[in-house]
Amino acid sequence: MALSSGTKGFVYKKHLDPSVDKPATLEVIIANSGGPLTIGDAVQWTSGYLTIAATTEAILGILVGFRTESGENIFKTKEDHGATLSGEDTLTAASDNITVHKVKGVVITDPYALFLNTADSTLTQAEVGTYFDTTATSDQITGAGSTIAQFQLVELVTVDDEGNDDNDAGLFRISESQLGQTES
């Protein structure tokens, strides 16, 4: 798969409840001219439509895919969707998406889903259990842990997916949700 985003972004890894096979998701129509949105971005509802999340604000969840109005994968469909695609992970919706094309983002909203993310700074064991916001691009954890923010660090990841030693990666869960699970 040709990715446009490099290594940033949130990647679903596991659920806090081991009996859950798939985390809860929602499909939400993307705002007119919404984007660019990249799989792995934190996203939010803005006036009822999907947009990139603003840092420090409650989020809806993590974007994991795009669907046409009829439910087809946007990167494999032959339907007219009006969107601009980049690689196999990034989309900017058409200016008439809300009324004509109705392309949707598929969003993991589950507060017990754990996402791997590489922060923009070192993470320490002392920060496990604390809260973090995202960078302005909504695809990376930033700053030192605080008392309330968009994500909670649940576990440090000391070896990344390629087997390299890592001191800036962790498993995070959504802690400040637009669905009402705000915790501090």
Description:
This protein is mainly β and 184 residues long. The chain folds into two domains: 11-108, no CATH class; 113-174, no CATH class. Helices cover 3% and strands 40% of the residues. It has one helix at 97-101, and strands at residues 11-15, 25-29, 37-38, 42-46, 49-52, 61-67, 84-86, 90-92, 104-108, 113-118, 131-134, 141-146, 151-159, 165-174. A six-stranded antiparallel beta sheet has the order 1-10-14-13-11-12, with no helix packed on it. The protein is elongated and about 50 Å long.
Break the fold down into its secondary structure elements and pairings.
Blueprint: E1 11-15, E2 25-29, E3 37-38, E4 42-46, E5 49-52, E6 61-67, E7 84-86, E8 90-92, H1 97-101, E9 104-108, E10 113-118, E11 131-134, E12 141-146, E13 151-159, E14 165-174
Antiparallel strand pairs: 1-10, 2-9, 3-8, 4-5, 4-6, 6-9, 7-8, 10-14, 11-12, 11-13, 13-14
Largest sheet: 6 strands, antiparallel
Q: What is the distance, rounded to the nearest whole angstrom, between the alpha carbons of the first and last residues?
A: 38 Å
Instruction: Report strand %.
Output: 35-45%
Strand order of the largest sheet: 1-10-14-13-11-12
Number of DSSP strand runs: 14
Helix and strand string, N-terminal first?
EEEEEEEEHEEEEEE
Name the average pLDDT.
Answer: 90
Number of domains: 2
Provide the gyration radius in Å: 16 Å
Proportion of helical residues: under 10%
Outline:
With 184 residues, the chain is mainly β. The chain has one helix at residues 97-101, and strands spanning 11-15, 25-29, 37-38, 42-46, 49-52, 61-67, 84-86, 90-92, 104-108, 113-118, 131-134, 141-146, 151-159, 165-174. The chain is built from one helix and 14 strands; from the N terminus they run ββββββββαββββββ.
